[in-house]
C-alpha cells in the first residue's frame, strides 16, 4: 500500500483491547477536509453517530474565537476505513518503537466517532479567525472494523460521560462575570456565608447547606444585565445590598446559620430557599433597581408578609410547585416572580400580566365542573 499518495501522520502507537490504535495531531484547517461525518439522512441504524445538533455549533465556535489564547478542546476519536501502515522509529529501544509515522491511503475514509460537534465548531471558528488554522488538536485513530464496531465505539465512548453539575461548573468558571459575582457573594455575604453548596446542584435532606451556587448564579443573571456585570465592583455592591435586605425578611435563613433549625427542615417546609424562588427574587431585584428611585429596604420589608410555607398551596401550586413538588421551568419562575411582585406592590409587565391572567383563568373551574362538584 505504501505508495506516494498517502496521508502521513506523526504518531504514537498503543494497544487497547488487543488492538492497535494511534495518537496524533492534526492542524485545525485540515479537520473538515480529511474527516467526514455520516450522512445525516441515513436512519440511525445505518449511522455510527448521533445527528449533529447544529444549534450547539455557534456557541462553541464563539467560545474558540473569544478565547483564542486559552481555549481547550479534548481529542477527537476517529476510525480509519482503509489501508494503514505504521513505520516505527528505531530498532532496539522499546520506547522508540512506539513512535513513528502513520501512513494512510488517500482512498481511506476517516469517520469521526467522538467529537463531531468540536469538529464543526472548529470549522465555524476558522471562518472568523483563519489564523487558528495552524493550531492543532489531538486525534486518536482506530482501525475501522465495520459499522457495528463503530456504533459500539460510540456507545462505549459515551457510556460513562457525565455532565458536571451546574454548581461546580460555576465554581470552576473564571471567564463568566455572573459566576465570579456569585462566588464572591458566597464567600462575603452574611446571607450566604457557609450556606452555599458549591459542588452539587441539588441538596439532600441531610445537607447542612441551604442554597446551591448554581441557584445563586441564575438569580444574578436575572437581576443584572451583561453591561452591569462588566463592572464587578458595582455588580457585587448591588447584589450585596439586595440580598442583605432579603435575608432580613426571611428569619429561617438566619436560624439555619446559627443552627437553631436544620436546612433540611427549612427546605422541606418552605419554598424560599429553593432555586426557583432565588431566581424569581433575582427578577424582582431587577424590577426594584429599574424603578426611578429604588428604595430597597422599604420595598423588600413587605417580604415578611408573604407566607412561604409549602402548605400554602392556594398561592404556590401552579407557580412554584406542581403537584406539591417544586417546579423548575421558566414559566414557573415567571409566575413565582409575579406573586412576589404583587406582594411588594410592584407593577407587572404586559407579559407578566398575560401570564397571571392565564393562570387565574386556568384556576377557575368551568360551569360543568361546578355542577359535577355539586
UniProtKB/TrEMBL annotation:
InterPro entries assigned to the protein according to its UniProt record, in alphabetical order: DGQHR-contain_dom, DNA_S_mod_DndB
Q: Which Pfam families match?
A: DndB (PF14072)
Q: Which NCBIfam families match?
A: DGQHR, DNA_S_dndB
- Name of the featured protein: DNA sulfur modification protein DndB
Source organism: Duganella alba
High-level lineage: Bacteria, Pseudomonadati, Pseudomonadota, Betaproteobacteria, Burkholderiales
